[in-house]
Amino acid sequence: NAGVTQTPKFQVLKTGQSMTLQCAQDMNHEYMSWYRQDPGMGLRLIHYSVGAGITDQGEVPNGYNVSRSTTEDFPLRLLSAAPSQTSVYFCASTNSGGKTGNTIYFGEGSWLTVV
Amino acid sequence: GNSVTQMEGPVTLSEEAFLTINCTYTATGYPSLFWYVQYPGEGLQLLLKATKADDKGSNKGFEATYRKETTSFHLEKGSVQVSDSAVYFCALLGSGSRLTFGEGTQLTVNP
Known about the structure:
The complex is a heterodimer. Chain A is mostly beta strands. Chain A is built from no helices and 11 strands. Chain A has strands at residues 4-7, 10-13, 19-25, 31-37, 43-51, 54-57, 64-66, 76-78, 87-94, 105-106, 110-114. In chain B, the strands form 3 sheets. In chain B, strands 2, 5, 6, 10, 11 and 12 form a 6-stranded mixed β-sheet that branches. In chain B, strand 7 (56-59) and strand 8 form a beta hairpin. Chain B is globular. The A-B interface holds A 31, 33, 35, 40-45, 48, 50, 58, 90, 92, 94, 96-98, 100-109 and B 4, 6, 30, 32, 34, 36, 42-46, 49, 51-52, 89, 93-99, 101-104.
């Protein structure tokens, strides 16, 4: 009963380094998304995917790349880390297309610090 | 676009006090509405949801009613406990599975 699994939970990066946050779900959900959480700003959508091979930008996509080669996995790549990307990152999945009655499930979060 | 406005925090209450956290929204169509809770150092947990007007979501003593006429989804609990101390997020699920969050409200309950 894994749900949404995110790794790593904690990471410290140096400015300019690249890294990938992994996200996997075992619920066969079509929709997956990445959010970042910053103090006083709630959660903001970075990128999302409506199915394998399809991705789109959210509210704050700059500095991040995503791909969706399988239904299960939706990795988030930081191309050249900057201190402004210090944040908590959440992956989410849902089988909803915006229909009522469905719920978004979140991973446990990844705490990223860029120094 | 969609938006969620949440009561600003932090909110500090004594144990057994009544809690209300206000949430209003702007959206097209008929969104689903959610309250999520985040305990210190943890991820988000779904607290309750409502999918259509006049629905009442409830869980662990918390309640919220989907009010389309006032575009609101206020969270209430009759008697809070110390263990309810957390950050609470109101959220709206619109088209394309995009969740829009409020800014979060920090609740601290003192014994």
